[in-house]
Amino acid sequence: MSSPADGIPRVAHDVERLCHNMGYVIQGKPEVVRNAVVCLLAEGHLLLEDVPGTGKTSLARALASSISLVWHRIQFTPDLLPSDVTGVSIYNQQTGEFEFKPGPVFANIVLGDEINRASPKTQSALLEVMEEGTLTADGVEHQMSRPFMVVATQNPIDMEGTYVLPEAQLDRFLMKLTVGYPTADSEAEILRVQKMGSTVAHLKPVLTAHDVVAMIEMVKQVEIAPALEQYIVGIATATRSMSELRLGVSPRGSLALLRAARACAAADGRPFVTPEDVKTMAPVVLAHRVILQPDAELQGRTGSELIARAVQSVPVPRAVPA
Question: Residue 198: is its pLDDT beyond 70?
């Protein structure tokens, strides 16, 4: 394995290649695209929430198509069964035994489209595989290939025919991103580029699965000072005492923020984490992990707003050794 001094610049270079390639499909959203790539390098799962038509599925497909790996798409519907996701055991008359037929979750990148249109029972089929990277069927544990990432899209929960994701599943997503509407210039560019059809179908891969695994391993060598670890803990602790929150950030959330900050540093070409990396990642990593009090929701408060307040309330370490 190469040293961080040699490998980190390569990671930053490959991140730029990946973001540039995805930019052919997702115009005017460089920050969203970059955060999706950072989520991949942190070995996390990504949740995209927005109204229909803003490019959620296109972003997920652009990420999968930019890497030469196995990816499957699952269209979540109310009648989808857990076995439609994980796989099913079928009786083989020749051998007289049951054989497990893997479902679409067995891939490097799994695109779960409109995940909150399926029942909570079906959504819970992803709990083990998202947390452990394994799937147990008929008492047999199956290991997922690396890299493994679930990219799920969902419509806002106030839209008809949607279910609220269970808190345990929501907490397993490293990041939650909102694509948002493009600017007028970006939308005009979308019309110009895609007037002859979708561009994502013609996207060519720029990296291999082996390249991505090597980048992930290099991210793990990024240094983070003890003072910054305490900074992350301080932010999580601040959310647990907020009167507007019924549930603050869990230790899993603190660990997720650490992983995302290291990936963010590597994507910028640095072998060490800075306070800015933590601040940049905190809203997209922590906002979906808190549960607001009913009166705070009525007042129009949001998770992102309260996370920003928690970050501001914790003193930034003054001197962080590189």
Answer: no
